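queue> pop job 88
queue> type: inverse folding (structure -> sequence)
queue> payload:
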């Protein structure tokens, strides 16, 4: 139901008793009802007289009439006159009278409520998408017996939010949930700008004679607050920093809880060390450290500042941190952020490998805190050039994929040109313009080479290979996938046997041996040998081997295949034998042809009447009476004249010289002996001599 002039109207009072008393708070509002006298008559008008003796006459029925801060509602159906007075001032307190036409009067005395009732106006700040709790404090002991309520101004009315009345239908209406019994606490989940406004805490009499407002709460909703996420592993130490605004608050603190208005304070600049939690303060920021985190440490943390006027305004907050603690066996793919001693953000160093893939993880916030616009850019000198955004999610090489906590950017076929510093950020539009906030930075290093090998086992075999690591690494592991930054870990030096996959380490040789048992076609793919970073908050794991495995079906030997092999061998042998025979035949043919040509030549030379042969020789001088044998080589005609005719060679005397040349005549005669005889001249010539062979006539 609704109350006019800032009050909340319910089905109220059965009548206004004579000299009835009502309490109100300065600056608040009050409402009471006057019942018709015991008559069935409906009145056309009823007068109301205030303490100032001013009369306000109702002339309308079943609708509100306003006169300054006083409003009347003449309800002919309920036969009542409702009176509401808001923004109570000192001169508003006193006696009010309801005058009915037949002359009867009803009097209500409005008194100032005591200090236990009335409370100062409170200014509370909430943050969009978070939770906030409005608390109506019960300061007066005599209020416990009364019905309490919370309503929200809506123009000239105050809409009912929560009531302790037994007739209230529910303690929750979706966004609002109330709790009691002492103080009323009404929490608002998933705060939005529509929840901003003025709320009132109030009470009404048990008999419903009146309602009065006790406290005004002004709720302001801020659209933006810096959000970031952290994903440490169980047992790690987590450190993060918060930057507070220019106006330095006196006391900064860290608290935990979904609702900053009631979150549990952990440490502050007044108490900076609480064992598990500690804090350091710089000029413009505070650094918080959590040691040996556990799964219970997951949750929402707030960086805030104490209010200088805690009774009048709530604490302010400037950072929200979403922490998710993961188990040790879970490989974190998000790129965590690290900070230097001064609390300044340092880029996360991620290593990629040329021609492979890599994925940069941008963690922004949880699902309920996701911004409308995101961007991914690369540093280029003094500017950051946009690569992808909410509107452009792929450009061929880079691809953006939304996740529950932010987004991922994958780079295919990495090259040296992809190295550099990248930024993940959010963008928001405000009254002052477009605001771009860089949330995290990643420095991408690209290695040109990595040892790569291939294996082609057969289905059912066991595959064993080894990887040598360069230096002593804290924890080695094997993972599978095209992208080493998000590949699926199979085994590690901490968990060396996973059934199908197992690992052995030789620290002296600095290598690890991996075995895959009973391989199947599903085991084909890319495997990486890597090592966890000694500080996963600053650097990604390193990789030193890439294995390309292709599982092939077994090869089966068949008789057909053997026959084909034997046939090929026999064919080669036969070809060699045939070739040898051909060569032999060719040689025989050539020899026969030469012999035939020689016979033909002899027949032709026999027809000649005379032929000469030149014999050149250098006979040595001999003693007189000493026989000297002279050997001469001569080519005889192929067809000699007759078998019994032999050449006779006669050497001429020295006197037969012609120009220093001695000639001898060789003739065929019947009287020559069977073998030719060579008679030397008596004086051997010094120079060359010739013999002439004459064919017989």
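queue> result:
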């Amino acid at each position: 139901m609704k109350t006019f002039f800032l009050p909340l109207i319910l089905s109220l009072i059965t009548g206004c008793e004579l000299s009835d008393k009502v309490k109100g708070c300065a600056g608040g509002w009050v409402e009471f009802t006057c019942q018709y006298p015991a008559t069935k008559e409906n009145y056309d008008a009823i007068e109301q007289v205030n303490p100032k003796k001013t009369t306000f006459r109702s002339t309308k029925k079943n609708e509100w009439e306003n006169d300054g801060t006083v409003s009347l509602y003449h309800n002919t159906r309920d036969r009542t006159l409702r009176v509401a007075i808001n923004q109570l001032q000192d001169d508003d307190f006193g006696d009010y009278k309801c005058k009915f036409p037949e002359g009867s009067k009803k009097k209500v005395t409005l008194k100032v409520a005591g200090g236990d009732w009335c409370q100062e106006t409170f200014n509370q700040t909430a943050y969009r998408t978070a939770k906030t709790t409005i608390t109506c404090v019960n300061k007066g002991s005599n209020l416990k017996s009364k019905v309490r309520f919370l309503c929200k101004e809506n123009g000239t009315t105050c809409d009912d939010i929560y009531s302790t009345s037994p007739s209230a239908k529910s303690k929750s209406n979706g966004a609002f949930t109330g709790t009691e019994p002492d103080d009323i606490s009404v929490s608002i989940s998933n705060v939005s700008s529509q929840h901003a406004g003025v709320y009132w805490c109030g009470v009404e009499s048990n008999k419903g004679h009146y309602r009065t407002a006790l406290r005004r709460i002004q709720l302001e909703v801020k659209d933006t607050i810096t959000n970031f996420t952290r994903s440490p592993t169980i047992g790690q130490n987590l450190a993060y920093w918060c930057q507070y605004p220019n106006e330095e608050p006196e006391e900064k603190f860290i608290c935990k809880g979904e609702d900053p208005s009631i979150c549990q304070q952990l440490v502050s600049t007044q108490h900076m060390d609480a064992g598990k939690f500690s804090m350091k303060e710089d000029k413009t920021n505070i650094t918080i450290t959590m040691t040996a985190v556990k799964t219970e440490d997951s949750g929402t943390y707030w960086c805030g500042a104490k209010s200088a006027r805690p009774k009048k305004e709530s604490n302010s907050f400037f950072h929200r941190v979403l922490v998710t603690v993961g188990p040790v066996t879970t490989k974190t793919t998000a790129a965590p952020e690290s900070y230097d001693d001064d609390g300044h953000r340092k880029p996360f160093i991620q290593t990629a490998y040329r021609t492979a893939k890599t994925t940069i993880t941008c963690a922004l916030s949880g699902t309920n805190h996701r911004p409308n616009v995101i961007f991914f850019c690369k540093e280029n000198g003094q500017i950051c050039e946009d690569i992808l955004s909410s509107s452009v999610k792929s450009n061929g090489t880079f691809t953006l994929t939304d996740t529950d906590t932010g987004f991922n950017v994958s780079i295919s076929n990495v090259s040296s040109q992809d190295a550099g510093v990248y930024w993940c950020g959010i963008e928001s539009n405000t009254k002052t313009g477009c605001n771009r906030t860089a949330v995290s930075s990643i420095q991408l290093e690209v290695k040109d080479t990595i040892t790569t090998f291939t294996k082609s086992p057969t289905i059912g075999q066991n595959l064993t290979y080894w990887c040598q690591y360069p230096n002593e690494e804290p924890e080695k592991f094997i993972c599978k996938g095209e992208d080493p930054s998000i590949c699926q870990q199979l085994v590690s030096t901490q968990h060396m046997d996973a059934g199908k996959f197992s690992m052995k380490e030789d620290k002296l040789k600095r290598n690890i041996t991996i075995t895959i048992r009973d391989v199947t076609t599903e085991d084909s793919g890319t495997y990486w040998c890597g090592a966890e970073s000694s500080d996963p908050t600053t650097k990604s794991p390193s990789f030193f081997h890439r294995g390309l495995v292709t599982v092939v079906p077994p090869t089966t030997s068949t008789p057909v295949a053997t026959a084909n092999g034997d046939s090929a061998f026999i064919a080669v042998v036969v070809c060699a034998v045939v070739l040898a025979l051909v060569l032999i035949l060719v040689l025989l043919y050539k020899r026969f042809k030469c012999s035939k040509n020689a016979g033909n030549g002899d027949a032709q030379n026999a027809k000649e009447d005379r032929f000469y042969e030149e014999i050149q020789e250098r006979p040595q001088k001999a003693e007189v009476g000493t026989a000297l044998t002279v050997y001469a080589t001569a080519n005889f005609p192929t067809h000699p004249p007759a078998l019994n005719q032999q050449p006779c060679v006669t050497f001429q005397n020295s006197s037969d010289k012609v120009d220093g040349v001695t000639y001898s005549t060789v003739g065929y005669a019947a009287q020559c002996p069977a073998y030719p005889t060579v008679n030397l001249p008596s004086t051997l010539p010094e120079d060359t001599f010739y013999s002439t062979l004459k064919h017989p006539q």
